[in-house]
Design goal:
Structural class: alpha+beta
Radius of gyration: 24 Å
Strand order of the largest sheet: 1-2-8-3-9-16-10-15
Shape: globular
Number of helices: 10
Number of strands: 17
Helix content: 25-40%
CATH topology of the largest domain: Aminopeptidase
Strand content: 15-25%
CATH class of the largest domain: Alpha Beta
């Protein structure tokens, strides 16, 4: 029997975790991509040992795994997992994070003291309307907060602590994992699904309380490389072919009123040029290709090739090459074959006093790849808002609700086994 009130130390732990600088680094040759992530991962492993969890390990790739032993008398309860990542976005400062608890938030603008021009406004952030009377947590204005995904880490540790203290609650075996490098798309690169040993898992890495996400983009990365001819500009007439100008024409030719992040939402896909490596002789444009329907990626890539070839055709002596790399696929393609994984999550959310909020992820999570690696993994809320921003915030209540949902989830799997 679960107590009427589930109390945990998740919020206190969260306030401690965010002080660790765990930014990942996209161009690193190591794994994890930064040593600073290992500092928190080692700390978390020690915490889990102190809480009495079994099989606690930190492997050579930085993955922390641990077990909460089952308490059920049943012999056929599936092992389920909960997963969160420790790294934060490299796009924003993450050193010397100073979390601030704004107690009993009343809807007023929150001026972040270390950067007074950084103001969290209710008028700009409708999700704050639901937080009146709760404790809001922000950073101080110079850094991101790190709720993505340290709120999820804290919720998992809080739930583990609660279950270890209440062995009278019946549940099956539970596996925990903390991973590095999710923010740079490498979080599952060395994840050992067989060693993890779970039937399914849930990433705790979502937004508003009650969220259940089981649809993600299918994603490819595409590099379009224009080749020209460089010579001394003083003697270039009739000889130079400027690859930078070709790339500029190509980017300008991409649709402006559709197929871009700034013009799409819901289930609409997009093409997004996000990086350019430029020289007169050779210029590469990197693009993200996204769609909820995997087959539609090919149509978008065909459009890009048509545009690029058309541009190259206007420049004598030029060339253009294309490289397409698969990033991840829509996890719904796997999860729709396991309806109980989603049904049990819905029931757990309801038992936590919430209504499930189901919406597609306009991005990807570790669960996108894990699902295709043989570990079906939808995503549950952790109370994250304004990801990768100095205005990032979370709610103490939402972190606590994530703890409740994890606890109930473990019980639902046991009851329905």
């Amino acid at each position: 029997m679960i107590p009427d009130v589930i109390r945990s130390t998740a919020v206190e732990r969260f306030l401690r975790y965010v002080t660790y600088d765990t930014r990942s680094q996209e161009h690193s040759s190591s794994f994890p991509s930064t040593d600073t992530q290992l500092v928190l991962l080692r700390f978390l492993a020690d915490e889990l040992i102190a809480l009495g969890l079994g099989d606690v390990s930190l492997d050579e790739h930085g993955y922390v795994m641990a077990s909460i032993p089952g308490t059920s008398a049943k012999t056929a309860v599936p092992t389920i997992g909960v997963i969160a990542h420790v790294d934060t976005s490299p796009e924003m400062p993450g050193e010397n994070v100073r979390p601030i608890v704004h107690a009993n938030y009343d809807g007023r603008d929150l001026v972040l003291p270390d950067h007074p021009d950084t103001i969290l406004r209710l008028a700009d952030d409708p999700a704050l309307t639901d937080q009146i009377g709760t404790d809001i947590i922000t950073a101080s204005g110079k850094t991101l907060l790190g709720a993505d995904d340290k709120a999820g880490v804290a919720a998992i540790v809080g739930a583990a602590e609660f279950l270890m203290r209440h062995r009278e609650i019946s549940h099956g075996p539970i596996r925990i994992a903390f991973t590095p490098d999710e923010e740079i798309g490498q979080g599952t690169k060395h994840f050992d699904v067989a060693r993890f040993g779970a039937f399914c898992a849930y990433t705790i890495d979502g937004g508003s309380r009650g969220e259940l996400e089981y649809e993600s983009f299918s994603a490819d990365a595409m590099t379009v490389t224009f080749t020209g001819f460089n010579t001394h500009p003083g003697y270039a007439k009739g000889r130079m072919t400027n690859a930078i100008k070709m790339a500029a024409d190509f980017v300008a030719a991409l649709p402006r009123d559709r197929l871009s992040p700034e013009t799409t939402d819901e289930y609409e896909g997009y093409v997004h040029p996000y990086r350019m490596e430029a020289s007169v002789d050779r210029t590469s444009v990197k693009l993200l290709i996204r769609d909820f329907v995997t087959s539609e990626l090919e149509a978008k890539e065909k459009l890009i090739k048509q545009l690029a070839n058309g541009i190259a055709g206007r420049y004598p002596g030029s060339g253009v090459d294309f490289v397409v790399e698969e990033s991840y696929r829509n996890m719904r393609e796997v999860l729709e074959g396991h309806p109980q994984i989603l049904d049990h999550a819905r029931e757990a959310i309801r038992r936590a006093g919430l209504e499930p909020v189901e919406r597609p992820i306009r991005g990807g999570t570790d669960g996108s790849r894990l699902s295709f690696m043989g570990l079906p993994t939808p995503n549950l809320f952790a109370g994250e808002h304004n990801f990768h921003s100095r205005l990032e915030w979370t709610s103490a209540r939402d972190i606590d609700k994530a703890v409740e949902t994890i606890v109930h989830l473990c019980c639902v799997w046991e009851e329905r086994a």
